[in-house]
Design a protein that fits this description.
The protein is of the alpha/beta class. The protein is built from 19 helices and 13 strands. It has helices spanning 39-49, 68-81, 103-108, 112-115, 138-149, 162-170, 195-199, 201-208, 229-236, 241-249, 255-260, 267-276, 300-312, 339-352, 354-367, 372-388, 410-418, 453-470, 475-491; strands at 29-35, 54-61, 89-91, 153-157, 178-184, 214-217, 281-285, 292-298, 396-399, 427-429, 437-442, 445-451, 498-500. Strands 3-2-1-4-5-6-8-7 form an eight-stranded mixed sheet, sandwiched between helices. The chain has a five-stranded mixed sheet with strand order 10-9-11-12-13. The longest helix is centred in the C-terminal third of the chain and has 18 residues, at 453-470. It is elongated and about 80 Å long. The two termini are 39 Å apart.
Length: 502
């Protein structure tokens, strides 16, 4: 299967103004990867490579689990296998510290076949008989990549912050070119810094003080996804190049006992998922900082589905991975949107993600106006797919919204968000009393969702008020309905708006 063409959403680029860097620039947000190349780093890079909204534009290796030189060598092999052979790679500085006890394993653990495919660094050309210039340093590559990215690049740091600190020391203006840093580690001022931070605490202090928006990804092992035998077997069954790479990297005989013993956690992958899908995470400012935030929790079940969906190239569980048929991409900003929608688009994307955005956008076009019930149907369909772990076109749906408007408009949203359609014979409307509810069938599994009574009461009260103020189906009434629907689109959280009917 081909690697997913990048177009992120999920996402995916910087929202306007102060919004996160995952929802504004299309088609891709440039990403610089900084890694000390352990196995979890490999898995994180493989996941990031699958994101439609991010493009790895440079990669540097740091002194940590692997030495910088070995890390750069393995990094080139990893990128080659992911179809990213053109991404420039540079080795960082050696910290001249005692290597960690696990370094030998990190540099060879299950990687022997992969490492053999590593390409050498690109030759540095010289004129005439001159001595060739030295290899590009990590700091120089970071500066070059940021200059070429044109601003608002993301920096994914999976090891010590040595390289970024060196780049900022050589050119402090680089800070303005970085939209966000996602760092798997701890702040340097905690009582017990983790491995990445303590390996080069001075570098971490310098980066944290640089005023760059920085998200610290730190969850306890008990809250992380285990990369255990069960998850590994699911990954092995997938067909993408990224999944095959991960499977091969864990095929060594020294890895199997660790998998069976439950040794591995999705450490660095969690940082990659934070970059790809920020809505998965609960976040809070770090000790009152205006630029540093730290993760406090996440939706682990959805994260597991996202993990597998990315590697399977079934992107229906991720923000913005609904595949357009005729369009290059679904519009999410700028002059392609009507003015009132454009004003709210950044906040809607930030709150609800790209997949819901795309579904609601298509629902509104299909329905021919912005309507509250049709938008609620779209949100419910996305929620049902999340709960069932189902992709677009995988569910059969029975709508209980009847055939009389306005409630029947609910069914239009269900069709778009699930992919179930009358043409395919995968959606039907049940007889009986109409209510905003639907059944979702996935093989032997059946889920029934209903809009919570408080939401229904609010919608009906708002519609009655619009009728009372503006009369029946008058132009003023439809303008009021449009404004009302935009508010519901922005404010209704699909995780809270629906109840499961036993």
């Amino acid at each position: 299967m081909r690697r997913i063409p990048l177009a992120l959403a999920l996402v995916l680029a910087a929202l306007l103004a102060a919004a996160p860097a995952w929802a504004h620039h299309f088609p891709r947000q440039p990403v610089i990867v900084d890694t000390d190349l352990a196995l979890d780093d490999l898995r994180a890079i493989a996941l990031l490579a699958q994101s439609e909204e991010h493009e790895i534009v440079a990669a540097v290796s740091s002194d940590g689990s692997s030495s910088p030189e070995a890390g750069a060598r393995n990094l080139r092999a990893v990128l080659d296998r992911l179809g990213l052979a053109d991404v420039p790679v540079a080795a960082g500085a050696d910290l001249d510290l005692e290597p960690p006890p696990w370094r030998a394993m990190s540099e060879t653990l299950g990687w022997s076949a992969i490492a053999k495919t590593a390409r050498p660094p690109a030759p540095r050309l010289a004129r005439g008989g001159e001595t060739p210039p030295p290899p590009e340093t990590a700091a120089a590559l970071i500066a070059r990549a940021l200059a070429e990215a044109g601003g608002d690049a993301a920096y994914l740091c999976l090891g010590p912050m040595t390289n970024l600190a060196a780049a900022l020391r050589e050119d402090p203006t680089l800070a303005a070119r970085i939209g966000t840093i996602v760092y798997y580690g701890t702040p340097p001022d905690v009582e017990h810094p983790d491995w990445n931070t303590s390996r080069d605490t001075a570098a971490a202090r310098a980066v944290f003080a640089a005023g760059i928006p920085l998200c610290v990804v730190r969850l306890g092992d008990e809250a992380l996804l285990p990369y255990d035998r069960a998850l590994h077997e699911r990954v092995r069954a997938l067909g993408s190049a990224a999944a095959r790479l991960i499977a091969e990297a864990h095929a060594g005989e020294r890895v199997a006992p660790l998998l069976d013993a439950g040794h591995f956690r999705c450490w660095d992958e969690t940082a990659a998922l934070r970059l790809v899908a920020p809505p998965l995470f609960e976040r809070a400012p770090w000790r009152g900082s205006a630029t540093v935030e730290i993760t406090r929790g996440w939706d682990r079940d959805t994260a597991r589905r996202l993990y597998l969906s990315l590697l399977a190239e079934d992107l229906s569980m991720t923000e913005g991975h609904r595949r357009a048929v005729v369009l290059r991409e679904y519009p999410a900003a700028g002059e392609l949107l009507r003015e009132d929608v454009a004003l709210l688009a950044p906040e809607i994307l930030r709150r609800h993600g790209r997949e819901e955005w795309d579904a609601c956008l298509l629902t509104n076009e299909l329905h021919r106006h912005l309507g509250v019930w049709s938008l609620l149907g779209a949100k419910m369909g996305i929620r049902a797919r999340e709960i069932l772990g189902a992709g677009v076109d995988e569910l059969r749906v029975v709508s209980h919204a009847g055939l009389e408007p306005p409630l029947s408009c609910f069914t239009d949203g269900l069709q778009v968000s699930t992919g179930a359609s009358l043409g395919r014979g995968t959606i039907s409307v049940a007889a009986g009393e109409a209510e905003p509810a639907a059944e979702f069938i996935d093989g032997e599994r059946r889920l029934v969702l209903r809009v919570r009574p408080a939401v229904v009461a609010r919608v009906r009260a708002d519609i009655r008020a619009a009728v009372a103020e503006h009369g029946g189906l008058t132009p003023a009434y439809w303008r009021a309905v449009r404004a009302m629907a935009l508010g519901y689109w922005r404010d209704i959280d699909r995780a809270e708006a629906f109840e499961v009917v036993e």
